[in-house]
């Protein structure tokens, strides 16, 4: 493969998404001892290092990426904002050019989407978006893996997003369009997904639906998804957001409106009692922990392909 980066979930083709999900399932089975060796005679990241830039702290993203790189035989390098010269005025381009001389891949969890775009523009090694304010492609690969594990397929399923039209929502809209899934988003006015994301989804063949009514989105849904109402960087708006999102909670009433076999997802961390109730999150239809675990397996598939250069 060429020296590609993964900045948006739409940087992948539908066929590549499916191939990554297939590979992640093999890696998951191998790790649990149910399958054969997933790597053959050589670890795919043996002798390779991955720089992992974190402007934002994380639990799942950091642990899943570090464990993934390590289990693939690579060496992960955690780099917080305070440990890079970015904090002292070095340009993003210079940082990317220098890191490219040392490592074989870069992952970046950043505040601004422009930062990860600039890293990719100036890097000679693959750059993987591990979260920006616009997208979260690694999360959506894990979500798609979780949905497919439960239903056995993706095409035609109805996904209801209830809450903030944020970065995770954006990537889910795009992936749903590419994989022929129906997606409807219920957000308060002023917090809907941005027009550029909806337009890109239409270009990809999707027909995303937007409503202000959570019950309308949840009706007969196969998958209910939510996320925190107050993402990192939105803390100054907390009081306003809590007022605006009142009523946009996945609770037992909303779950009963959804399809009989619906599953509930949340990328975590969850603010229990706000966007989701304990009853639902800990209930039998929740796949939240499976979703979190699958961050490891899909991250391994991506790193193996993009950094380890394993063909899909």
UniProtKB/TrEMBL annotation:
Cite the annotated pathway. Answer: Amino-acid biosynthesis; L-arginine biosynthesis; L-arginine from L-ornithine and carbamoyl phosphate: step 1/3
Domain named Aspartate/ornithine carbamoyltransferase carbamoyl-P binding is located at 4-149
| Catalyzed chemical reaction(s) | carbamoyl phosphate + L-ornithine = L-citrulline + phosphate + H(+)
Query: Which positions bind L-ornithine?
Result: 167, 227, 231-232
The positions annotated for binding carbamoyl phosphate are 58-61, 85, 109, 136-139, 267-268, 295
> Aspartate/ornithine carbamoyltransferase Asp/Orn-binding domain: which residues?
155-306
Q: What keywords sit in the KW lines? A: Amino-acid biosynthesis, Arginine biosynthesis, Cytoplasm, Transferase
Cytoplasm keyword on record: yes
The enzyme's main class, written as a single word, is transferase
Biological process per Gene Ontology, one example term: L-arginine biosynthetic process via ornithine
Major site of localization recorded for this protein? cytoplasm
Q: What is its EC number?
A: 2.1.3.3
Q: Quick one: a GO cellular component term?
A: cytoplasm
- Where would you find this protein in the cell? Cytoplasm
The keyword Phosphoprotein is assigned to this record: no
User: What family does the Swiss-Prot or TrEMBL record give for this protein?
Assistant: Belongs to the aspartate/ornithine carbamoyltransferase superfamily. OTCase family.
Report the HAMAP family cross-referenced here: OTCase
Protein name, entry field: Ornithine carbamoyltransferase
Q: Which organism is it from?
A: Methanothrix thermoacetophila (strain DSM 6194 / JCM 14653 / NBRC 101360 / PT) (Methanosaeta thermophila)
Its organism's taxonomic lineage begins at:
Archaea, Methanobacteriati, Methanobacteriota, Stenosarchaea group, Methanomicrobia
């Amino acid at each position: 493969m060429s020296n590609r980066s993964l900045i948006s979930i739409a940087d992948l083709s539908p066929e590549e998404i499916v191939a990554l999900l297939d590979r992640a399932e093999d890696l998951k089975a191998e790790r649990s001892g149910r399958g054969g060796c997933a790597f053959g005679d050589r670890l795919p990241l043996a002798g390779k290092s991955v720089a992992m830039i974190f402007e934002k702290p994380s639990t799942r993203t950091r642990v899943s990426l570090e464990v993934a790189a390590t289990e693939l035989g690579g060496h992960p390098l955690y780099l917080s904002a305070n440990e890079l010269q970015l904090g002292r005025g070095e340009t993003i381009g210079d940082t990317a050019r220098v890191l490219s001389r040392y490592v074989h891949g870069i992952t970046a969890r950043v505040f601004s989407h422009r930062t990860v775009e600039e890293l990719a523009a100036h890097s000679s090694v693959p750059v993987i978006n591990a979260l920006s304010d616009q997208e979260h492609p690694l999360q959506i690969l894990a979500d798609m893996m979780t949905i497919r594990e439960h239903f056995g397929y993706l095409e035609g399923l109805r996904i209801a997003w209830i809450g903030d039209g944020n970065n995770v929502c954006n990537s889910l809209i795009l992936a749903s369009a590419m994989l022929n899934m129906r997606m409807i988003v219920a957000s308060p006015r002023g917090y809907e997904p941005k027009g550029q994301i909806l337009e890109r989804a239409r270009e990809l063949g999707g027909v995303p639906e937007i409503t202000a009514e959570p019950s309308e989105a949840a009706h007969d849904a196969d998958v209910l998804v939510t996320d925190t109402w107050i993402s990192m960087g939105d803390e100054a708006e907390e009081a306003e957001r809590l007022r605006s999102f009142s009523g946009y909670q996945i609770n037992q009433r909303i779950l009963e409106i959804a399809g009989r076999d619906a599953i509930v997802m949340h990328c975590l961390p969850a603010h229990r009692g706000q966007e989701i109730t304990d009853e639902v999150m800990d209930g039998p239809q929740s796949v939240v922990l499976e979703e979190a675990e699958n961050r490891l397996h899909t991250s391994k598939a991506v790193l193996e392909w993009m950094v380890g250069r394993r063909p899909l």
